[in-house]
Amino acid sequence: MTIVAVSDTNIFIDLLETSLLEKLFHLPWEIHTTDFILNEIKEAHQKKQMNTIRSHYKLTVKRFEIDELNTLIDFYEEQKSKSNISLQDCSVWTYSKANGYVLMTGDGNLRKAAKADGIEVHGILYIFDQFVEHQLLTPAEAANKLEELKMLNQRLPTQELDKRILQWRQI
Q: How many Å apart are CA 159 and CA 161, to the nearest integer?
């Protein structure tokens, strides 16, 4: 059974900045996102890399029809006061939920709200675990890339990062 994973922006950016986005497409998953998420990627070098990835790998991009947009906006209006979640986050949340897909995010508010809504949610550390498990990175390479990511994204859970780095350096 193929896993379908819907990614939000921060997953793409973390993987782009560590030069690992291509590896995501070598996992036994279908990777999806929404047009709202792709539009959040603003930096020229990141846009260029995403376009290269899109031309070489299958990235399914959900584009919302008018009736779906109205539903999405209503859902966003409900959520923004409760959870401080953006329209972009709501787009991947609703898309994941409607299709029974796994949601990939590093956003704490989105993670918490989507889990409470019954969606399976994973973050960047899970992806790194999968890279090692599927032998796309050696444990040493994964530890080095996590060190790099730790410097780029201070919002990641330091304790969990350090735990994996230590574990993978001992293998």
A: 5
Q: Is 25 exposed, middle or buried (0-12, 13-18, 19+ CB in 10 A)?
A: middle
Q: Taking residues 127-152, report their average pLDDT.
A: 97
Angle between helices 124-133 and 158-169 (to 10 degrees): 10
Mean pLDDT confidence for 114-127: 97
- Residue 99 CA to residue 101 CA, distance in Å, equals 5
Is 37 exposed, middle or buried, given 0-12, 13-18 or 19+ CB atoms closer than 10 A?
buried
> HSE of 48 in the Cβ direction (CA atoms, 13 Å)?
5
pLDDT of 112 above 70? yes
Residues 29-39: tens digit of each pLDDT: 999 999 999 99
What average pLDDT score do residues 79-98 get? 94
- 78-82: long-range contacts (C-beta < 8 A, 24 or more apart)? 79/113, 82/113
The answer to whether the beta carbons of residues 125 and 149 sit under 8 Å apart is: no
Half-sphere exposure in the Cβ direction for 152 (13 Å, CA): 15
Give CA–CA dist 127/136, Å, rounded: 11
Residue 1 has pLDDT above 80, yes or no: no
Tokens of 158: 């330091």
